[in-house]
Amino acid sequence: MKLKALSTAIILAALPTAGAFAAALDRSGQSIAAFLQPGNYFEAGISVLDPNVSGTTNAAYGNQKTGDMAGDYYFPSAALKLQLTDNFSFGILYDQPFGADAEYTQSTAFTHSSQGNTSVEVDTQNLSMIVGFQPTENFNFYGGGVYQTVKGNVALRGSAYSVLGGYHPVAGALPSTTLPGYDAKIGEDSAVGWLAGAAFQIPDIALKASITYRSEIDHKVAIEETIPSLAVLSSGAITAPYSKGQTTITTPQSVNLDFQTGVMANTVAFANLRWVNWKDFAIRPNEFGQAANVLGKNPTVNQPKGFDLVAYTDDQISATVGVGRKFNEKWAGNASVGWDSGAGNPVSTLGPTEGYWNVGLGLQFSPAPNYFIAGGVKYFMLGDADAQSGSQFNTKGTVAEFEDNDAWAYGLKIGYKF
Prior knowledge:
Porin, 27 strands
């Protein structure tokens, strides 16, 4: 069986579209497959996502079509792995693990004629520096530091967020009309975390297995907040509608489990499992939190402990399985099926889907044994979801229903062995 050389060929054909539309803010899938390649290795890739996410508001919000609220986006990745000695290796991996890009443009539940639309944009970047120890050909123990940056912008508009638009804590009444809601500019912050893992391989049968843990990372971000028409009662005084303060945002811990094995001549089977701890993730900026604590005590809102800007009820679990085949010395390909659990339902109106099923195809061309070009495509069938605003979290209240949505992801990667 021609499996020893096949082990490298097929895994390289896997494309950077693995987590392109995963639950919550998950985006890249945080693979370390490049670090586990034999010898010295470099790769660079880019993934592009074209989603279509739309829904209909509930009767209380006018039974209106929301229009497509999910923006197209792309994210790059790169990796350099050096085999320093027979027993030690070093790697640098770059990816953009978490993100969001969405804007509502139609329904009055999410828009305001003079003040704009509900929108969200979140960007993160990761630089993972890994050291590996290989006591034998079969084992690899590795760990290292992770440098991460995060920034973003959020705007809340329309009747779905009117609880933030005109409530006056002294008068104690909720607004009867849609007023400007809330703006937050999350300044870029950097922080560090860590990862650790172990891998096992039997090259003669193209078997590889690895498990990788990534820690949560705490960010102390400066957030500029504006609540245009809301006077917030704080310590007995009415505060200004604009403030700049510090808030902690903790990106979640995760575990990746990867496996592949030869199943017949020129063919391998592979699988990936991923867990992300979204259940413990929440964002409650300072000024927003003060407003939420006051507003939540109103019987109409009925959130006595306040509420978060974004939060999730469940952890995310995702899985991908597939087969790869080497057609000849220059061509290889793969086919895969993926599933994602989502992070709970109802979901936030800022990301109104619950998990997915996907199918993917990849093709790799190797002009020479030491480098390749690979491309691929995945089709995502996005899960139906009920969407709610932050003030409705952990209640049965919802704003809109999102059904029959999908997305296409495209990937391109180059790799070089030296």
